[in-house]
Structure formats: structure tokens, C-alpha cells
Amino acid sequence: MIKRRDNHGLKLWRLPALLLLVLTLTVLPSSPVQAQVAPQKYYGGDGDGFTLLTSDKMTLDGALIVNSARYYGGSGDGFSLLTSDEMTLDGAFIVNSARYYGGSGDGFTLLTSDEMTLDGAIIANSARYYGGSDDGFTLLTSDEMTLDGSIIVNSARYYGGSDDGFTLLTSSEIPLSVPNRAPTVDAVALYESNRTITTTSITPQLEYAIKVSVTDLDQLFELSTVTVTLYYDANGIYDELEVPGTGNTQTAAILTLTVGGTPVWAIDPSASTTWTIEVGSSTQPTLTNTSGDFWFHFKPSRVATETADPAKWHIHAVADDGEATAAGYQDNRGMNWYGEFVTNTTDVTWTVVTAGTGFTDDVNEVTAIAITYIANGDYSASVKAADWDGAVGGAGAAIYDEIGDTLVAQEFSLMADTNATLPDAVQVLLAGTFVDETGTITLEAGDTTTTNTLWLKLADIFAEDVYSGSITYIIANR
User: Which residues contact 425 (CB under 8 A, 6 or more apart)?
Assistant: First the structure.
């Protein structure tokens, strides 16, 4: 049976009774008439507020029946007078010998331990929450009430803390203590830039996306950072203890999102590198959600190390809410070979060449051709030739001889080397000839050779003309 406190004070039902009093009156001149009444036990009510009530005529005041700090409840009928050592006040619950009252429709039915849980200051049973209104014990829907630490909260009105457990408190009278719930990293995956196709390998200088799926039951805006580390592992076996803490142009990139209304994206290394984080494509989810996908778009460096068995690249992701962190990973991604070169020489010119000459030191020689090779793994450098056209003779007027004899009229041939020493030079072929087969992974700046040299030889019979054509330098995986 419940009594309930509401905004209008106590509502109690008074028992009709007939009481026969036998009085002996003594009249004294100097004293008023007084009645002597036998002591009563007072439990609450209206009028004087303390009329003796039976258990079936009584309402619940807050979660407790209170009279001069005397607490009632805990027995079978829920309304027996208990001594202080028989009962404790715990949040909004009457507790005695581990017997819990509350959680049903009337808010005060005796429940077994499997029917009810004690959750802060709120009575909970099958996800039904009681508290938060003026009487402190109204059934609230989930959108009317939130659980905030051990405090009942509804429209910023706080109940609890006094003897009866349900006095309205101001924010300055009671602190909020909200236990943090750690985030989780639910999945980490590498995608092509379209976000629809997953991939197991990466090519430097192409755009990719890493999806990090995160859950935080305190909502995602509680996160401070989400960090992704993409790193090279020579033995190809993922080990969280090996995740690097700094970026490296050849072996690691650390992509960081500072979560907020205006997200801040960063990458390490960020200077003197071709690693990039594509800010315009990267996104964070709606931060008022409790879970979502963080998308990191990036382009790998030109010198992000090529993988050759057993080596692999791994992806390690961390979500940090300032108090706790969670990690996840995806391992065993491949890095494809990448190479490029830059030359300061776009035109090689022989001004005047005499027919029947060539392939001797300092004759028909062009040197100081500078070439910078950039690669993320072992590479070779080669050069190849083709027929040339004549201004007068037309297409194919000069015929390339890859043997180097130039015995037939209008034939020419080339030799090449990385320095200006003819004995070290190689015959240039139509399909290409290696001039260096020892190249290894480079720094971002690349490996530069400034002494590349070409030698030209002409047949004895060679028409006077201005000839033009191509000489092609090649960098290739080896």
C-alpha cells in the first residue's frame, strides 16, 4: 500500500472512530482546562500530519515514511517500524536484510533480487525507472529521465541527499559523478578511395581510405582523438608492442583526428614527405551517436617500403576518450613497388656530327645528363633507342643499329653509361639496356646521378639533315 507526496502536500485518509473519554475535571481558579490523552504512535497524515494509520490506509511519502528521522518499511507489509540498525537508506530504496521495495506499477512492491536491480538512486525493474518528479516516485519514460551518476535527473531537477532521500537539491548542493564508459574499436579496414571496395594492397601516391568503427556508450563526442598507424613490419607478424610512436617516410605514417565540432586532421611525418592525409575526403560520424565510422583518406609516400615476403604493412587504430583507450587492427597488407625519375635534361643535342665517326673518347659525346631516381624498393635503370626522323628525309630517315657496326648507309647507334668513361659504357638496344642494376630503396629526395653520358656513332654514308627522335630512360622493379 502506497502513500505519495505531491505538490499539494500530504493526502491521508483519517479513520472514522468513536472514542469514549472518561475525564476527571478539577477546576482551579488560576489554570485553564486541559485534556490528558494517552500516547499515540504517529505515522503521518493530513491536518496535524501524524494521525495513526493502518497499513491499508496509508500513502507513501517519497520512497520512505519519515517521522523525526524514524524509518518505516522492510517487513512483509512494507510498513513496520524499524530501528536504525535494522534498516539503511540507500538511494531511493528502502533496504532491510537485502529486501528491496519498488519497481512495480505502485512503486513499492516487494521484489526478488532477480526482479530488480539497484542502479544508483533509481529503482529499476525491466527497464522501468521511478523518480524525478515532485513526489520523487513517478514512473518516467526514457525521454523524461536520464541516469546521471547516482542522481535522479529530470529537467535538471535533482532529488536525493536528505533524510527522506528525496529533497529537491540545487546543483550547488550536490555534485554530479558520472562514471566513464570506455570506448571500443569494433573494426579496422582498408578500402579503395570509393569506400566500397576493400583491398589487401596499396600503391604509393594513390588515394586509399581506412575505416575505423568505434563505439562509445557515452556518445562519440566524448572521444578526444582517433589515431591510425599504418606501418611496415619486416617479419609480417602483427605485434601491438611493435607499433611505432613516430612517423617515418619509409616505414610508418600516423594519421590523427582530433574529434570535435570542427575536426582536425593531421599526419606524421608531415614535412619533407609525400605522405598526405586527404582532409577534404576524410570524415567523422555524427558525434551524438554512440557508434559510427571514422574515415581516414590518405596517399602513401613514394618511398613507403615495398613488401617482399614475409614483410607486410599493418594498420593499428586507437580511440581515446581522455580517460580510457581502445585499440583494433587489420594486419597483412601489401605495398606495391613504386619508382619514378626526374631529369634536368629534356633535350640531348649533338650540334654537328661527321659521318663515319663515333664510339671513341670525347667524340660525339654528350655528358652531364642529371637523373634523380626515386623508388620504394630495389630498382634498375635502363635506356633504350628508336629510329629518328629527318627534317628533309622524313620519318625513319635515320635507322637505329643496335649492334653498333653502322655498316649500312643512314644507320646510327648509341652507347650509354652513368659516368663519362667510354670503356664502361653499354650498347643501347631498341628494347632497352641496363645502365644500373644495383638501385635500392631511396629517401624522398631520391638518388641523383649527374654524369650520365651518351655516345653517338654514324654510318660512313649519312645524308646531311636535321634529325630528331627519342632516347628513353627507364626505372623498373628488380
Answer: 415, 416, 417, 453, 455
